[in-house]
Amino acid sequence: MKSVFNYKLFLLLISVLVWSSARSQVERPGMPLYNVVEDTLYIPILEIEAPEVIKPKNSTESAFKVDQFAVPVDVDISPSEYGVWVDYTEFNKRVWLLRVKSSGAQSINLWFDKFKLMPGVKLFLYNASQSSVYGAYTHLNNKEWNAFAVKPMNTDELYIELQVPIFANEYGEFNLGQVGVEKDDRLQLKSVSDQYYGRSATCHVDVNCLAGGNYHRQKKSVCRIIYRGGRRCTGTLVNNLDNDGTPYVITAGHCIS
C-alpha cells in the first residue's frame, strides 16, 4: 500500500504548478542556441494525435474543481533514437533538437519520465516564434524520483533543445514519457486562466471580497495542480514547524482519485 501511495504522491508533486508572478519550476540563466527564424536546419517532428473528445467526468468528482483539460499521450522519446544533434563549436556545445506538434492544440505540456541531467547540461522549451521560452532547466532541477514535469505552453508546436558541453561524454538520463495535449472540442476549458481562475465556488466565501479580508495572506498559498498531464485541480502550499521551506502541498482526494 505504501508503494502505491508514494507513486501517486510523486506524480502529483512533480506536476504542481503555480500560476502567479513566479514560475513553479526554478529556471537558471541561459538561452536557446537554435534560432527558429534564421537557422535553416530541419528539425524532426514528433506528431501527436490526441482524441478530440475528453471522457466525461466521473460522477464522484467535483465538476467545479476538477478539470480534465488535456489528453495525456504516452510516448518514449530519447535523444539516442529521435531528433537531431548539432554541434555549436563556437559555444562549445552539442545540441539535441526535436519538435513536438499536435495540430490545433491550445497547449502542450511535457512529462519526462527520466530526468537526471549532468552538470553543465541545459534544457530549453520554446514555441516556433521563441516568444515563449521555458528554461534553462539544469541538474539543479533533478529530483530524487528521476522525473520532471513542465507546465503547459500555449502552442500547438513546441521545440525541445538539450544543450550538452561538447567535451562531455554523456548528458545523464533524459527521456520524454508523456505529452499532454489540450484540444478545443468545446467540452473543456481552454485556458490555464479560464473563467474559474481566481473565483470561489458558490458554497465558499470569495477571498477577494470584503468578507474574505482576513485571508489575504493565506490566499497567496493557493496553487493549481496538473495531475498526469491532463487534469487540473487546486491545492495549498503548506509550511511546517521547522519553517525550512520544504515544499508540501495539501489537496483534496478527488483531485488525484
Which characteristics define this entry?
5-stranded antiparallel beta sheet; single chain; 257 residues; 6-stranded mixed beta sheet; disordered N terminus; 37% strand
Architecture blueprint of SSEs:
Elements: H1 2-13, E1 16-17, E2 45-47, E3 67-68, E4 71-77, E5 84-88, E6 93-101, E7 107-117, E8 122-127, E9 133-137, E10 148-153, E11 157-165, E12 172-182, E13 222-227, E14 231-238, E15 248-251
Brief summary:
With 257 residues, the protein is mainly beta. The chain contains one helix and 15 strands, in the order αβββββββββββββββ.
Instruction: Tell me the number of helical segments per DSSP (H or I, 4 or more residues long).
Output: 1
Shape: globular
Give the class from helix and strand content and strand pairing: mainly beta
Unreliable runs: 1-23, 186-192
Give Rg in angstroms.
19 Å
Q: What is the N-to-C succession of helices and strands?
A: HEEEEEEEEEEEEEEE
Tell me what portion of residues adopts beta-strand conformation.
Answer: 35-45%
- Give the N-terminus to C-terminus distance in angstroms: 15 Å
Mean pLDDT: 82
Number of strands: 15
> Helix fraction?
under 10%
